[in-house]
Amino acid sequence: MKFKILLALIFVNLLQAQKFYFPKTAVNDSVILEKQMPGLAQQVIPLLESAKYKPENTVDLMDNLFRVQLVAQDYKNSLASLFENRNLFADHNMGGYRNIGFELYSLAKLAQKETNTSFSASLQKVFNQKYESLPEKLIPRLELALNGDVDASRKLLKNLLDKQKNKDSIDYKTALALCKSYLNYKTYSSIKPQVMQQLASKDKERFIIETKDLKINGNTLSITIVRRKENTSPLPVILTNNIYAGPIDGFFGKRAATYNYVGVVVNTRGKRNSNDVNNPFEHESQDIYEVIDWVSKQPWCNGKVGMIGGSYLGFSQWAAVKKLHPALKTIVPQVAVGIGIDYPAQNNIFMSYMLQWIQYVTNNKFTDEADFTNAVKWDSIFTKWYKSGESFRSLDKISGKPSKIFQRWLDHPGYDEYWQKMVPYKKDFSKINIPVLTTTGYYDDDQIGALYYFKQHHLYNKNADHYLVIGPYNHGGAQSFGFTYVNGNPIDPLARISIDDLAFSWFDYILKGGKKPEILKDRINFQVMNTNTWKHVADLDKMHNSSLKFYLQDKKNTSSVFNKPETKNFTTQIVDLKNRDQKDTYYKVSKKDSIKMTNSVAFESEVLDKYIIMSGNLSGVFNVSINKRDFDTDTYLYQISPDGKSYLLSTHIVRASYAKNNEKRQLLEPNTMEQIPINNSYFMSKKIEKGSKLLLLVGVNKNPNWQINYGSGKDVSDETVKDSGEPMEIKWYNDSYVEIPVYKD
Question: Taking the complete model, does pTM exceed 0.85, yes or no?
């Protein structure tokens, strides 16, 4: 009895310290590790829902819970948690494929125990049952969902175990990470070879899948063609131009076939079987024209081609209409990269991420997932560059892998002919007379690019048949479906739509004479967050019918920040561009929340006495005086809700010298009043509750994720810390304002 009490006390003490017993022998002995993991998982479970460790939203909680329950061999409860995670992740079973590998593993373990058969036989049975029960539209996602990286999970597991050498205890966070990495390796090393073989067999029964190498413009392009077996007559083709060669090619092809089209996926130069030079973005226009020409003449094509895809694949469609082929009848660019507009530079400021992405798509003929997702490595590279004070042009050398592409991009800091020739430019848009459907989201990294094409098309073609759907979606959601939670917050039920269904109902409408998608009631279709409604207007200017000008003034010195100041004044900000060791500063919103405001000045509004609906892009002007010839502005607008939580509404960055014309640099006159217009900010439509406040942060963009503009007037890519000179001093005049678009009922 005393022994049991002693054990209980030891367990309580370990629990209080968030440490668990874990023998050092488990590090190098797989048999001992196998025995220890279920017990470790059982100890982790009680802490998952504790106040200290509970995730902000239930989706993440249930994701952790089902994994740890699975390690603890509690298969029934693990399945229940997994299903709850799916239901919380997305409505209408749109996420029904999510974590399906773990579901199959659990089901097979249960079947093995119940029927006293081998794991392999049980897995085969449950796979067949699950496959037959899945909605048809989820079938194309199975290959991606089941294609777990066994080698990567093995390495991660080994790294975590190595950190436990010579230790007899493990802390909670490490234990949770160990449970998850152990589960990944255990599950996919157990199921992957068999289920992928079974899936290939099922695909063979359902689809005709062909792969070819085409000679286009003297180069080799790999192409994948997918057709449903029962579709024997020629059909319209849905084409995707994809630089991310790999299993996702199969998904795009099978998705189109499932919606009763022929799916064709072409990889860009240098990918898959191509030995040509891979220069992203540069050759799409000319290559896609020839691909469409070939596709349109094939016996399985009825002469009509549509295009779809997101991000780079969205850009590709705009490249395709630079030289429009007669067979191309419509495009559906989703979250389209605005090349030279929002990537690799946003409003003329190059981002460090561009190097990470270049290596992702050029390290091999597919995609280098392990390198791309190595956040520790890339954070270290960006930080090393930042700390060094060397030029941004040296970033690739610091990474250990010099890049001609990176250097070539840096040679074009303005929106010059290099970028202009890749996609339609100005009057080119007037010639685009095919129907277009653009989708993007308020939290989409490429929203600025997607809206750039939309605006330019309508600007130069008054009869443009171009629709926009925008809602509370991130980069992934606006090219697939509306997740229940975005940025940790739930979205309105009516926003939880299938972008896939929308896109293919559009194709039915244009290519097969079907019914126009119901959501497309006007040219612009946008979801107003916190109202559970969609609104529909003819042009962007009609999304709002009023505005609020938020002036850069302290609320202590004015009755309202929304009133123009009677006396001109300024707020001085000093930024030491040499300082690489400064500590981050935060704006305390409430006891619950604070906002990072390093290198920024904060302006807080009075409490709103009634709700407002913000709907559109921030605009306005900064009146500034600076002791340098240039700087990069950094602007954030937040809502502070009545309960003390902060919500990001919009951001804006721009290189001051390009703010008036993104093609031609116009340096500032030091210590002279200058006007910097605010354009191309992030778009938002949201009801902001009565009792909220607005917080505006304005300042200087200076961090490891972007170029550093030292203000010397040289090419910013070539500037070093030696060019910084005296600290940057900015006078933000109080007649500067950020104009917030408002919709009044």
Answer: yes
